[in-house]
Design goal:
This protein is an alpha/beta fold. Helix content is 33%, strand content 14%. The protein has 3 domains: 265 residues, Aspartate Aminotransferase, domain 2 (3-Layer(aba) Sandwich); 87 residues, Aspartate Aminotransferase, domain 1 (Alpha-Beta Complex), CATH 3.90.1150; 61 residues, Molybdopterin biosynthesis moea protein, domain 2 (Alpha-Beta Complex). α1 crosses α9, α2 runs parallel beside α9 and α3 crosses α4.
Length: 445
């Protein structure tokens, strides 16, 4: 598969032109990649008005993913989430309806902020038993769609979530399409799912729109992401997708990131799927061995390893620190969980070093302390009203009874302890203490 962006930039750098354009380093090395770091000069195309090399590369990606249209983001899935909500709003307005989104409460905080800026009405969904997971089942949607006049125009799901749990996307897609709603999926952690056999990617499970953070699980520089519009997506939205991205995007995209996305196409069209399958098989074997050795694991995502180490006598943070002493850096740790992410780029010794380090950690008496229950929602203001209000930052102990001004989460995407606009009660304070949150933003009085 051709790499038109990479080819253009390499040819440009090899020609050694006098660079009387941005950026200011003029191609001279400081860190190393400056010669390949350009701006939207003639021939380089224009991101979000792409007609040349960028459009050719995006079409290559669309062919790989089987989408009707795939667009690049140099600003991660955060930009793609904002664009998905803008497209959902346009879809609602094309139907003459008020834009309403039914969403799992573990949505990335950028979802909440974008919904507030776009003045979308949010209906929260799911059985949130902990901060990082929120199971959404089709039957939970029935009541929301009972009244056609107030039914959501889109359903928004985070799958996989941070702990590696995958939603029942095929069933959710069938329900949404039967009821005239779009299915939007934050697939930031699952770009590689397309290249398993069979595919587990949201596009192949019925999603209309989804975002992938290519940089999270594919060999792409940080910030590289895709916005996919599926074959089932309403045709009217396809020509609006670039504008939806540009509404929120920087006008100075990184061509290093764009080249990285472009180069990944050639890898994915080659033997990289075989390498993904190989690493997934090795991780499956490792999971079985760890469980036989007494470790408690969770999640079904093939390239994510999630420990529940309290049964072994450790918090996630303690286990992460012990692995850190062995030179193993983890993705995420909190009192209850430890998350490790794998890819074909992991060296051959990654598994042996991890097993060796874990083997040196003796079991201890199980830890019995559990996270306090999530507080019942107590909305006072809409998220839009809260996020756009003056605020002050207080120690959590001084915030009892105040209204939260911005989401408080341990990491994105996660279920917020409270949604902005909700009142802070004693249950929320207990959770703030448990997760080590010392200050919160509250509406100024």
């Amino acid at each position: 598969m051709k790499t038109p962006i990479c080819d253009f930039v390499r040819d440009y750098a090899a020609a050694s032109p006098v660079r009387l354009h941005m950026p200011g380093h003029k191609g001279k090395a400081l860190l190393g990649p400056e010669a390949l770091d350009i701006t939207e000069i003639p021939g380089a195309d224009v991101l979000y008005r792409a007609k040349g090399v960028i459009r050719q590369s995006e079409e290559n990606a669309a062919a790989l993913f089987g989408s009707a249209r795939t667009l690049y983001s140099a600003e991660g899935s955060s930009l793609c989430i904002r664009a998905m909500l803008q497209l959902a709003q346009l879809y609602a307005r094309l139907q003459g309806r008020r834009p309403r989104i039914a969403a799992g409460r573990n949505a990335h905080r950028v979802f909440l902020e974008a919904a507030a800026l776009l003045d979308l009405e949010i209906r929260w969904l799911g059985d949130a038993q902990e901060l990082l997971s929120c199971q959404i089942r089709p039957e939970a949607l029935e009541a929301l769609f009972a009244d056609e006049k107030t039914a959501p125009t889109a359903v928004y799901v985070t799958s996989p979530d941070y702990l590696g749990n995958c939603a029942a996307l095929a069933a959710l897609a069938e329900f949404c399409h039967r009821n005239g709603a779009l299915l939007l999926v934050d697939n930031a952690h699952g770009a590689y799912l397309k290249f398993l056999s069979p595919s587990r990617h949201p596009l192949d499970l019925g999603a209309d729109l989804c975002c992938d953070s290519a940089h999270k699980t594919l060999p792409v520089l940080t910030g590289g992401a895709y916005l996919h519009l599926s074959q089932s997506c309403p045709q009217a939205l396809l020509p609006m997708a670039e504008q939806a991205l540009s509404l929120f995007a920087s006008t100075s995209p990184s061509y290093l990131i764009l080249q990285s996305l472009d180069a990944a196409n050639a890898l994915l069209a080659g033997d990289y799927p075989v390498r993904i399958a190989d690493i997934a098989a090795k991780l499956e074997a490792l999971k079985a061995a760890l469980q036989s050795a007494g470790w408690t694991l969770s999640g079904t995502e093939p390239l994510k390893l999630t420990f529940r180490p309290k049964s072994r006598g450790y918090t996630g943070e303690e286990l992460g620190a012990l692995l850190g002493q062995a030179g193993i850096v983890c993705e995420f740790a909190d009192p209850d969980c430890l998350v490790l992410m794998f890819s074909p780029a992991c060296g051959a010794d990654a598994f042996s070093r991890l097993q060796d380090a874990l083997g040196r950690i003796p079991p201890r008496a199980p830890l019995r302390e559990a996270a306090p229950p999530l507080p019942p929602p107590a909305p006072v203001l809409s998220p839009r009203e809260a996020l756009l209000s003056p605020f002050e930052t207080l120690p959590v102990e001084a915030a009892l009874g105040r209204i939260l001004a911005s989401p408080s989460v341990g990491c994105p995407p996660a279920v917020p302890i409270l949604i902005c606009g909700e009142r802070i009660g004693p249950e929320a304070l207990a959770l703030f203490r448990y997760y080590g949150i010392e200050t919160v933003d509250v509406i100024a009085e």
